[in-house]
Design goal:
Blueprint: H1 2-8, H2 13-37, H3 40-51, H4 53-69
Helix pairs in contact: 1-4, 2-3, 2-4
Protein backbone atom coordinates (compact mmCIF):
# COMPACT_ATOMS: atom_id res chain seq x y z
CA UNK A 1 0.00 0.00 0.00
CA UNK A 2 2.77 2.46 0.94
CA UNK A 3 4.92 1.41 -2.00
CA UNK A 4 1.98 1.83 -4.40
CA UNK A 5 1.25 5.27 -2.97
CA UNK A 6 4.91 6.32 -3.27
CA UNK A 7 5.08 5.03 -6.83
CA UNK A 8 1.85 6.79 -7.77
CA UNK A 9 3.27 9.98 -6.24
CA UNK A 10 6.24 9.83 -8.61
CA UNK A 11 8.88 8.45 -6.23
CA UNK A 12 11.22 6.10 -8.09
CA UNK A 13 13.63 3.53 -6.68
CA UNK A 14 16.55 5.76 -7.69
CA UNK A 15 15.16 8.51 -5.43
CA UNK A 16 15.12 6.16 -2.45
CA UNK A 17 18.67 4.95 -3.16
CA UNK A 18 19.87 8.55 -3.44
CA UNK A 19 18.16 9.41 -0.15
CA UNK A 20 19.92 6.43 1.48
CA UNK A 21 23.33 7.57 0.28
CA UNK A 22 22.58 11.15 1.31
CA UNK A 23 21.58 10.01 4.80
CA UNK A 24 24.95 8.27 5.20
CA UNK A 25 26.72 11.52 4.32
CA UNK A 26 24.38 13.51 6.56
CA UNK A 27 25.15 11.10 9.39
CA UNK A 28 28.86 11.84 9.14
CA UNK A 29 28.26 15.59 8.85
CA UNK A 30 25.84 15.69 11.80
CA UNK A 31 28.31 13.71 13.91
CA UNK A 32 31.19 16.02 13.02
CA UNK A 33 29.20 19.20 13.68
CA UNK A 34 27.76 17.87 16.94
CA UNK A 35 31.19 16.69 18.09
CA UNK A 36 32.46 20.27 17.99
CA UNK A 37 29.37 21.85 19.58
CA UNK A 38 28.29 19.24 22.14
CA UNK A 39 29.56 16.29 24.13
CA UNK A 40 30.90 13.24 22.33
CA UNK A 41 28.04 11.04 23.60
CA UNK A 42 25.39 13.31 22.15
CA UNK A 43 27.29 13.66 18.86
CA UNK A 44 27.45 9.87 18.58
CA UNK A 45 23.69 9.66 19.15
CA UNK A 46 22.98 12.20 16.39
CA UNK A 47 25.20 10.31 13.95
CA UNK A 48 23.59 6.98 14.77
CA UNK A 49 20.06 8.43 14.61
CA UNK A 50 20.56 9.85 11.13
CA UNK A 51 22.54 6.79 10.04
CA UNK A 52 19.57 4.54 10.82
CA UNK A 53 17.61 6.20 8.01
CA UNK A 54 19.83 4.67 5.30
CA UNK A 55 18.59 1.05 5.60
CA UNK A 56 14.99 2.27 5.53
CA UNK A 57 15.58 4.19 2.31
CA UNK A 58 17.45 1.25 0.74
CA UNK A 59 14.59 -1.12 1.65
CA UNK A 60 12.08 1.29 0.14
CA UNK A 61 14.26 1.43 -2.97
CA UNK A 62 14.18 -2.35 -3.27
CA UNK A 63 10.43 -2.44 -2.77
CA UNK A 64 9.89 0.31 -5.34
CA UNK A 65 12.17 -1.43 -7.84
CA UNK A 66 10.18 -4.63 -7.40
CA UNK A 67 6.94 -2.69 -7.86
CA UNK A 68 8.28 -0.94 -10.97
CA UNK A 69 9.07 -4.28 -12.65
CA UNK A 70 5.48 -5.49 -12.28
Amino acid sequence: MLVKWLSDSGVRSEHAYTAGLASIGLSVVSWAVSAKAETTDRADRWGIFVGEWAPTFFCLGLALRSYEKD
